[in-house]
Specification:
The complex is a heterotrimer of chains A (about 110), B (about 650) and C (about 170).
Chain A (H helix, E strand, L loop, with lengths): L2 E4 L2 E4 H21 L3 H26 L3 H30 L14
Antiparallel strand pairs in A: 1-2
Helix pairs in contact in A: 1-2, 2-3
Chain B lengths: L2 H21 L6 H24 L4 E11 L2 E9 L1 H24 L5 H23 L3 H19 L6 H32 L4 H7 L17 H22 L7 H4 L5 H10 L4 H8 L1 H6 L1 H22 L5 H22 L2 H28 L12 H4 L1 H15 L5 H15 L4 H29 L17 H16 L14 H10 L8 H20 L11 H8 L4 H47 L7 H24 L1
Antiparallel strand pairs in B: 1-2
Helix pairs in contact in B: 1-2, 1-4, 2-3, 2-4, 3-4, 3-10, 3-15, 3-20, 4-5, 5-6, 6-8, 8-11, 8-13, 10-15, 11-14, 13-14, 13-19, 14-15, 14-18, 14-19, 15-17, 15-18, 15-20, 15-21, 17-19, 17-20, 18-19, 18-22, 19-22
Chain C lengths: L1 H21 L3 H21 L3 H26 L13 H21 L17 H11 L1 H21 L8
Helix pairs in contact in C: 1-2, 2-3, 5-6
Classes of the chains: A mainly alpha (about 110), B mainly alpha (about 650), C mainly alpha (about 170).
């Protein structure tokens, strides 16, 4: 059931899932470790892309178009979120100089 | 208007007056207070008269307050001749006194003036509730509220430290009595499961149903013990309220209140509540012979005790206070030997002449600019003739001189005590009462001669005292007339004539079962002559204290009762309270509350360390949480 | 043939991902992400998702990434300096990430695939099928998404407006 007949060859759906897992983890690492806020946003985009890959892969495995529809929605939401996030970033860092997310630590207890 | 409505109106008028004066009285012109304050009392008097003429009688229930299974406490009023009698005394004499105080309290500012009448109306309401209530619960409500009113009125001039202390003392002693009342009621509840008077009295084993019938059948011993206990507990209440030994120390101090208060509460009405209680509970006391005897003994002893202290008092109001204590002792003696109607007759006559004495004394005090020391009076006979005459009428009544009402009431009691058959203890008590009557003559005479006769004292604060206002003189005059002619409604003391009070009250409390003889009348007149003689001798007597200074000191210190009580009760209680505050309240209770707060703060402080403000920390926690959740899910899925 | 295409694209994607995380200059991170996206679009094409492939290139690589590039241009090229203030962050992150990876691998072992819903692939993934889905069953989410984009646009305009007191 997990084998996909693509262009005459037999691929396994679990490869796609593994790739997605690796990309997701890479994105998570980026969010956790990098200090440039821009790079953090980019890493989030990477994670979203990994999720999209899973959606499309399962859509193909089950031959159900809904997976791709969801991937489209996800892309839209990701775009919107990137826009707003960048706007906020631009607003914050227009006046400050340093681009280190550890500088934005005033909301502490 | 039905009797039921009338009975409720008697209570509602003073209540309405109190509420009106408490809420709006001090904002409206003084004329409002002057009309409402005494007006509602007179309205109640009229309502009581209406009930009297309608010969009303019945147990009227208005609503049920507590109903729990078979146990019921209604709000009911018991209207019989005894409650009508007491109502008449309270509203009639009370009305006169409240009217008098319109003039006496005129120097107060408007808010205080309204406050005074509000408190007086509260008192009238409470006292009426006490005597009209038809069940034990509301009796106690009225009892306690009367104590509260007494506290409020004694401490009326609350800026004075001595007044506040006296008010507190009165209230604390009253509460001791309240405890006795409540415990007695509990015993009755437990024994008979009834709350109303008719319910309990009807169930007294073997008694024919209905209030007012004497129980002649023997009782079972178990019931008798309970009833004895109840009798003694109620006696505690009566003793506290009526200022008898040993709970008497509050009454002289209560003279700190304004004179109308002393007249109303501490002469005519509140202190007679104990007598009313014994009368109302007579079905119980008829059976509980030990408690009944105790009533008589306490009464007689207090009468003598108080009379001796009155000899050395210099404050005119204190003399009257001790005299009140002594006369109530007579009333207790009367109801204690079974002569209930005689006791109530003395209650009525005492209300007349004691209120008269207090108000006349109030006239003198008012004219002397609040000077109460009799040694600074003197010679007022020439300057305040009407007051002096009324005071003389009251004094002769107190001593028991014919034809004043005091003679008929006091001598009836003594005569009945003298002639009670087969009871040696009562004869001893008669002796005590006889001695007291003589001493009464002496101290009353001293009081009158010192204040009104002779030359004006050089320490007089006022050279020419002004005559009292009309509103202060008229009630006094009315009472003087009542004291002069009132005795003729019951002249059984001299063996002939009407016995109105006895006949009136017989349906409620029964009349005594023995008659006096010729010897009784002879003794009566002998007592009167000796007492009057002492009254006169008091003018010429030499100071006897030179011979026995220790006696003078003993009497001046009121037999050291205050000191004993202070050492026995007040100081240990203070110590316990201090200990509780220092070692229990602060370390345990306060600390528990404070520590809970500190604990919450410490917890919050600890938890707030997780809010570092660093975005990356938060994401780490996020991911860590997701990892933990995933681990748990996988483990559970696989197990 | 398809397998080869897949592995090449996958390798490119992974390398791009590592590049996103590893480069110090943000411009290089952005460009690495573009590489990832292009590789992914190829993989989508392999998976019969023609429309999604096109959209990925046009929208994601073409619009969103360009947006990121503009922002980098606006804010200036910055390098991350120093070691930062949270010293344990790196170690803990590595720990969690490894656990995460292991979990995912474990999850993959237990995936239960079910039978495909349809057998016919001729209509699958075409523009027509996407259109049918979006405009019939999923019309409501489609419209909501457009509103979401409107909201995001308004938000972005508002957030980046010029303040009066700024120079």
């Amino acid at each position: 059931m997990s084998t996909l007949n693509i262009g005459g060859s037999q691929l396994d759906a679990s490869w796609f899932l593994l790739l997605s897992a690796i990309l997701f983890v890479l994105g998570a690492v980026g969010v956790l470790v990098r200090r440039n806020p821009l790079v953090i946003l980019i890493s989030i985009e990477l994670m979203l892309n990994a999720a999209n890959l899973v959606l499309v892969a399962f859509s193909r495995q089950l031959v159900n178009i809904e997976g791709q529809l969801f991937a489209l929605m996800s892309m839209t939401v990701a775009a919107a979120e990137a826009v707003v996030g960048l706007a906020i970033l631009v607003d914050i860092f227009r006046t400050r100089d340093a681009e280190d997310i550890d500088d934005l630590s005033e909301m502490h207890g | 208007m039905s009797n039921q409505t009338l009975a409720l109106l008697i209570l509602l008028f003073p209540a309405a007056g109190a509420i009106l004066l408490a809420g709006r009285g001090w904002r409206l012109p003084r004329i409002f207070t002057v009309i409402v304050g005494p007006g509602v009392v007179w309205a109640s008097f009229v309502a009581t008269l209406a009930l009297l003429f309608a010969k009303a009688s019945g147990d009227f229930t208005y609503w049920t307050w507590i109903k729990s299974g078979t146990f019921e406490v209604p709000f009911n009023l018991l209207i019989d001749n005894l409650s009508i009698f007491m109502s008449l005394v309270i509203t009639g004499v009370g009305g006169l006194i409240v009217t008098y105080s319109v003039g006496y309290m005129e120097h107060e500012d408007d808010p205080s003036y309204a406050r005074f009448f509000c408190y007086m109306d509260v008192f009238i309401f409470s006292m009426l509730l006490l005597v009209l209530a038809g069940n034990f619960v509301f009796l106690i409500v009225g009892w306690a509220m009367v104590g509260l009113s007494s506290y409020l009125l004694i401490g009326f001039w609350y800026q004075r430290h001595s007044a506040v202390v006296a008010a507190r003392k009165a209230f604390v002693m009253n509460v001791i009595g309240d405890v006795g009342m409540i415990l007695g009621t509990f015993v009755l509840f437990v024994t008979y499961h009834q709350a109303t008077f008719q319910g309990v009295f009807g169930r007294l084993n073997g008694c024919p149903r209905g209030v007012g019938q004497q129980c002649l059948l023997p009782f079972t011993s178990g019931d008798t013990f309970n009833l004895e206990l109840v009798g003694f507990l109620f006696l505690v209440g009566a003793v506290a309220k009526s200022a008898q030994l040993p709970l008497h120390t509050w009454l002289p101090d209560a003279m700190e209140g304004p004179t109308p208060v002393s007249a109303l509460i501490h002469a005519a009405t509140m202190v007679t509540a104990g007598v009313y209680l014994v009368g109302r509970m007579h079905p119980i006391f008829d059976v509980a012979t030990y408690a009944h005897n105790a009533v008589a003994i306490i009464g007689a002893v207090t009468a003598l005790f108080a009379a001796t202290i009155a000899i050395v008092q210099v404050d005119i109001k204190r003399v009257l206070a001790y005299s009140t204590m002594s006369q109530i002792g007579y009333m207790f003696l009367a109801v204690g030997i079974g002569a209930y109607t005689a006791g109530f007759f003395h209650l009525l006559s005492h209300a007349f002449f004691k209120a008269l004495l207090f108000m006349a004394a109030g006239n003198v005090i008012h004219a002397m600019h609040d000077e109460q020391d009799m040694r600074k009076y003197g010679g007022l006979w020439n300057q305040m003739r009407p007051t002096a005459i009324t005071f003389l009428v009251g004094s002769l009544s107190l001593v028991g001189v014919i034809p004043f009402v005091g003679f008929f009431s006091k001598e009836q009691i003594l005569g009945l005590a003298f002639s009670k058959p087969d009871d040696n203890m009562v004869h001893v008590l008669w002796g005590v009462g006889f001695a007291t009557a003589l001493i009464t003559g002496f101290y009353t005479g001293r009081m009158w001669w010192l204040s009104f006769w002779g030359k004006p004292s050089p320490q007089r604060p006022v050279e020419h005292p002004h005559a009292p206002r009309l509103v202060m003189m008229v009630p006094v005059a009315i009472l003087a007339i009542l004291a002069s002619v009132g005795g003729f409604i019951q002249t059984t003391a001299i063996g002939i004539g009407p016995s109105t009070v006895t006949d009136f009250l017989a349906s409620a409390v029964g009349s005594q079962r023995w008659e006096g003889g010729g010897a009784e009348i002879a003794v009566t007149f002998l007592t009167m002559i000796l007492a009057a003689g002492l009254f006169a001798w008091a003018l010429y007597s030499r100071p006897w204290s030179a011979y026995a200074p220790w006696a003078q000191r003993l009497l001046e210190r009121k037999y050291y009762f205050d000191e004993i009580y202070d050492w026995a009760f007040a100081r240990p209680t203070d110590w316990v309270a201090g200990f509780a505050l220092r070692d229990i309240e602060r370390p345990v209770i306060d600390a528990a509350v404070v520590d809970t707060g500190l604990l919450a703060r410490a917890g919050a402080g600890g938890l707030s360390l997780t809010q570092s403000g660093y975005f990356r920390n938060y994401v780490l926690v996020f991911v860590g949480g997701a990892v933990v959740a995933a681990v748990i899910l996988i483990v559970r899925a696989n197990s | 043939m398809a397998i080869a295409v897949f592995f090449v694209a996958a390798a490119l994607a992974v390398l791009g991902g590592i590049g996103v995380v590893a480069f110090h200059q943000p411009i290089r991170s952005v460009l690495s992400l573009v590489v990832v996206m292009l590789s992914l679009s190829v993989i989508f094409l392999l998976l019969n998702a023609q429309f999604v492939f096109a959209v990925q290139i046009i929208v994601y690589a073409g619009a969103v990434m360009v947006l990121f590039l503009f922002v980098i241009a606006l804010l200036g090229p910055a390098r991350e300096l120093g070691r930062g203030r949270l010293r344990f962050q790196g170690w803990l992150s590595a720990l969690f990430v490894l656990i995460l990876l292991g979990l995912m691998w474990g999850l993959l072992q237990g995936v239960q695939y079910r039978q495909p819903d349809k057998g016919d692939l001729s209509f699958f993934g075409t523009v027509q099928s996407i259109g049918v889905g979006l405009f019939t069953t999923y019309l409501y989410p489609f419209e909501l998404t457009s509103i979401l984009l409107l909201v995001a646009a308004i938000g972005a305009i508002y957030l980046s407006r010029k303040r009066i007191d700024d120079v």
